[in-house]
Write a structure and sequence with these properties.
CATH class of the largest domain: Alpha Beta
CATH architecture of the largest domain: 3-Layer(aba) Sandwich
Strand content: 15-25%
Shape: globular
Number of strands: 11
Structural class: alpha/beta
């Protein structure tokens, strides 16, 4: 299956005007400076924000079409959405959080083992580390058997070592999933490591010049490591 979108939305300082396409088993990374429209794009994919005009399709299913006045509710799109701030219920233990909307609770046990948090399943979110909470949030998203997996800067609040470990886990998991994955980050190293395709977003629009300008800057925080392999960059207009 393929998710394809072409939509526009007027924001306070700029207009989002973007097109994208991502196939099952592939990861598209949206990258760009903070405040450039990446989260707005992913929220429109999720149905949490409504585009002013355009269309969004998943395979043969139309999720949004401004001309035909179609706007499928988020809960009917069957998404997995991992937020930056974990989005877990504080009164539930980790297992019950992940199993809350699970298709099969037995699979939650398998996911907890895969992400190495099976020994923490009875603990509440405040009793574990940020990395462990985010592992639970990923399990929660995957347990729904999502047709589309959205990850909005899921590791930005974590320390460097934890981020590196979770990147490895997501990359190894990517090939096993039968859904498209859209991942938001402002970290170029992260994008180069994870992506099958990269879509640089600046002020709501695709800007591949930003990618080149940023990579060729003086070394510093966020600069790609030497020898990093850049994936194929593509955009569907």
């Amino acid at each position: 299956m393929t998710v394809s979108a072409s939509f526009r939305k007027k924001l306070r300082y700029f207009d989002v005007d973007i097109s994208l396409e991502c196939r099952s088993g592939k990861m598209m990374v949206l990258i760009g400076p903070s405040g450039g429209g990446k989260t707005t794009i992913i929220r429109m994919l999720a149905g949490l924000e409504k585009p002013d005009e355009g269309s969004l399709c998943f395979g043969n299913d139309i999720w949004f079409d401004s001309l035909r006045r179609i706007n499928v509710k988020p809960q009917k799109r069957r998404l997995g959405y991992v937020f930056q701030d974990y989005n877990l219920f504080p009164h539930l233990n980790l297992f019950d959080n992940a199993a809350f909307a699970a298709a099969d609770k037995k699979e939650v046990h398998a996911l907890f083992e895969l992400f190495r948090i099976d020994h923490l399943k009875k603990r509440k979110p405040h009793m574990v580390s940020g990395g462990e909470r985010q592992r639970c949030a990923i399990c929660q998203a995957l347990a729904r058997h999502p047709r589309l997996l959205l990850l909005d800067e899921p590791f930005s609040a974590l320390d460097v070592v934890t981020r590196r470990g979770l990147r490895e886990e997501i990359k190894s998991l990517k090939g096993k999933l039968s859904c498209p994955i859209i991942y938001v980050t402002h970290d170029i190293n992260e994008a180069l490591f994870l992506a099958d395709e990269i879509l640089p977003v600046v002020d709501g629009k695709a800007d591949y010049g930003w990618m080149q300008r940023t990579i060729t800057r003086e070394p510093g925080e966020g600069t790609p490591t030497r020898g990093a392999r850049e994936p194929r960059l593509s955009l569907v207009y």
